[in-house]
Amino acid sequence: MPNPSRDALIARLPKAELHLHIEGSLEPEMLFALAQRNGVAIPFASAEAVRAAYDFSNLQDFLDIYYQGMAVLQTEQDFYDLTWAYLERAAADTVRHVEIFFDPQGHTERGIAFETVLDGIERALQAGEERLGISYRLIICFLRHLSEEDAFATLAQAMPHLARIHGVGLDSSELGHPPAKFAQVFARAREMGLHVTAHAGEEGPPEYVHEALDLLQVERIDHGNRALEDPALVARLVGEGMTLTVCPLSNLRLCVIDRIESSPVQRMLDLGLKVTINADDPAYFGGYVNDNFRAVADALDLSPDAIVRLAENSFTGSFLPMADQIAHLAEIAEVAGD
Ligand SMILES: Nc1ncnc2[nH]cnc12
Ligand SMILES: [Zn+2]
């Protein structure tokens, strides 16, 4: 049930967003505007018609449309505009820190230079730090439906820019593309000093979460829903203090859960898992981070303590240095105590 004082707490609490695909923040209006600006034909008559097409029955359904949508992103300015629009929206949700994913292969395979993408996103992130006070980390994701060789080629493209890229992730079609397929390239990324995270247990079985831990040696699990099917795995995740970046509205729209009341957030908290709330692809799934907080809070009747815990986890699960994490926790305590 909606609860105004809980909504006010969500609105005020400082938070970090750890699971956000910047290409997934491409709102239909901007998709239309960029299609016109760049002379790209799209098979929709209006932004409303685009929204109406966002009716997915699984992850692949969504990905097919998501990769099509990317075609309108062509210039450095396009990537800047996309990222800036997200940051303004995040600031309105009292987001203080973002760790965003981008999919280089979704662009380089269309003939867009890696640097065009990186320069535009990073210029907006720097402006966001200066003008909105939002700190950031940038994570390149390997598309798991492509080969490990392709991932190595992407890592090579990132190599001259290592001071600007903080981590690697793994996304796209999960079933049939287990983490094991990318063990070598993740080992290389770790040797290069990059942080590592991977989507696992969104549609894939608990075994994929085990593989992400054992073979990729990830620092976070993106989603992790299906880990709950394996009590020994849950115990391991709790023991290791592993952060799970859960995305409630994404789960709903991709039919990972049948209704929002089935979100695993409260169950995960009760089990002692370090769960965080994130938007994933907000333009496609109907909400930004505070919408995700409100949706689960209303459906599961989350307590104020649970909401504060979720905000705390977003900082302690981030790649920020400990001193910065502690400063953010102090700010949360101040806001929660008001
Ligand atoms: N939820 C998701 N799962 C896998 N790959 C993605 N790419 C963008 N969003 C994704
Ligand atoms: Zn994701």
From TrEMBL:
Cofactor: Zn(2+)
Listed transmembrane segments: none
SUPFAM superfamilies documented for this protein: Metallo-dependent hydrolases
Residues annotated as site: Important for catalytic activity: H223
Keywords: Hydrolase, Metal-binding, Nucleotide metabolism, Zinc
Residue intervals of the Adenosine deaminase domain: 14-333
Cofactor: binding details: Binds 1 zinc ion per subunit.
The enzyme's E.C. designation: 3.5.4.2
UniProt-listed InterPro entries: A_deaminase_dom, ADE, Ado/ade_deaminase, Metal_Hydrolase
GO MF annotation list: hydrolase activity
Binding site for substrate: D281
Record-linked Pfam families: A_deaminase
Residues that hold Zn(2+) according to the record: H19, H21, H199, D280
Catalyses which reaction(s): adenine + H2O + H(+) = hypoxanthine + NH4(+)
Active-site feature positions: E202
Role according to the record: Catalyzes the hydrolytic deamination of adenine to hypoxanthine. Plays an important role in the purine salvage pathway and in nitrogen catabolism.
PANTHER family linked to this entry: ADENINE DEAMINASE
HAMAP family recorded: Adenine_deaminase
Family affiliation: Belongs to the metallo-dependent hydrolases superfamily. Adenosine and AMP deaminases family. Adenine deaminase type 2 subfamily.
Protein name per its UniProtKB record: Adenine deaminase
Organism this protein belongs to: Novosphingobium aquiterrae
Lineage: Bacteria, Pseudomonadati, Pseudomonadota, Alphaproteobacteria, Sphingomonadales
